Amino acid sequence: MSAGFRQSQSSLHTWSGLIVGWVLFTIFLMGTVSYWREDINRWMRPELAGAERPEQVVAGAVAYLRDKAPDAKNWFISVPGKHEAGASLFWQPRPVEGQPPRRGRRDTQALVGADGQPLHARDTRGGEFFYRFHFDLHYVPVIWARWFVGFCAMAMLVAIISGVITHKKIFKDFFTFRREKGQRTWLDGHNATAVLALPFHLMITYTGLVTLMTLYMPWAAVANYSQTDKLFDALFPSAGEVVRAEKPAPLVDLVPLMRDARARWGGREIGTIRVAEPGDAAARVTITASQTDSISVRTPSIAYSGATGRVIWQSDGAQSAAEAAGVMIGLHAGRYAPDLLRWLYFLSGIGGTVMVGSGLVLWTVKRREKLPDPIRPHFGFRLVERLNIGFVAGLPLAMTGYLWANRLLPVEMEGRADWEIHAMFLVWGAALLAGFLRPAKRAWVEQFALTGAALIALPLHDLAGGRELIGAGMAGDMRMVAMNLTLLVLGGAFLLMAQKVHRYRPKAKRARKVPKAPEAQAMLEAAE
Amino acid sequence: MTLLALLVAVAAFASLALSMEKHHQDLLKKRPLPRDRRAFRIAGWAGLVLSYALTVASWGAAMGSILWFGLLSLAAALVLLTLSRIAARPSAKR
């Protein structure tokens, strides 16, 4: 490979990585913690008891819906998985002639337990927020956010491929990580996190783009399907719309239908149940398999008559292209993954986050030595250096702030779920600001140390309340215990990083022309 | 079985590292003969194949293949961290 080509790829890598690096860091970190979405949901609603049997919860949900929305157009019940408590359900009221369909479905949803009573848990978006944020962002229209995220993911793909080309000794350096060698160490760390989990990085970036392909590249769909409805029918086959018979008929018991569906799928768990036109003779019950048991997210479904319980429709296998897309989305989200594989996903995700973060820091490390005047670096350098602090150290701090808001905000507070999110952004804003105002090195240490301490304090706070850690452990709720232990370990890791940065003294190898005032030294050492 | 697959993968990567001049010197304090290097290389690749077979045997082809990539990353990271710790020891400095 010619040196010129490699050089051009190197510049491409540097700049495609830098301009979207902060967003990528955010997407990677938020996406990585989303692998534990259900567990974060559970942790953020400590009032709920452990999981119950799905059949009982569905029976409870139907009892609740019968009472609350007997004449709804549709009921949707998500059947709780192994680690969830209660079924979350929502219903679609019958549209009234001449009135626009209602927006916002706050009052048409509920979380219901096995006894048919709504479960009372604090109002929170839980882990769903991290998951949505990693492609929808927040405070901006969703479509813009997705285009922006897609653009960044594309740049990521470019950065990965140009990075592999730039990396001169990808195999010779495969096991190389030289400690405490300044720039060398940063480069080794960046390379190692990139190369060791390269299959993951490529897969996650590519499949991430595939999840939103019909948004980014609608042309194939536009050319082949005259109406969007037809496209969706092809992508997500269903039994078609239900026409009301206008004859009342009681709804059959759903539990035998669940058993029947499970038997037909060879024991797969059930994901969602939709009841269309409940209470009418034409009522239809559509049961869809859970995404936890197959790699593809396009799961089969069966429709039953709601009056007789007979099977009226079964989805056949998806078309090969749709199935391929389903497998790719599944690979990305990892919902099928058992715990062991989830952990590997999570660790690879952390690897990717560290790769992006170290790449960002490397940009400043490489340029620091060449600065004409290290005491007053030019604006671009300072901007990158300070944004790095606000994102790489500030975002984990902000996310910890979100978890703290979940524990500290009053349970009965109005708009509580929204305020948890506002709290996260307030902490993030403060961290960004502090990154610009404090001496760089001190800002790194402070934010890492604060994140570590705050993470460790979370389980301790619960322990002091006497609730979750001990109580959950006694009740055999190992998920809760595991989450708390993970918080402790993560907190320890952040404290360790703070200590490393704090103790770091650059080796005075080269004689510098500039005398080292304390201020200048802090600047020089920063980010290393 | 999965744990065994991970251990085999770690051993395989360690063997591959030993087939490389620099790491061989760090670990065994001597220059490897070309013959040794080839032996370590073959053993390493064979180990990777074996760990794949073990993973697929207990998880099936689809899930096993995905899991195997994850195990590889973890195993290689463990070997990398161990090697860098050994190389950073004062006695190992050349």
From TrEMBL, chain B:
<dbReference type="Pfam" id="PF11804">
    <property type="entry name" value="DUF3325"/>
</dbReference>
<keyword id="KW-0812">Transmembrane</keyword>
<feature type="transmembrane region" description="Helical">
    <location>
        <begin position="43"/>
        <end position="61"/>
    </location>
</feature>
<keyword id="KW-1133">Transmembrane helix</keyword>
<keyword id="KW-0472">Membrane</keyword>
<protein>
    <recommendedName>
        <fullName>DUF3325 domain-containing protein</fullName>
    </recommendedName>
</protein>
<feature type="transmembrane region" description="Helical">
    <location>
        <begin position="68"/>
        <end position="88"/>
    </location>
</feature>
<dbReference type="InterPro" id="IPR021762">
    <property type="entry name" value="DUF3325"/>
</dbReference>
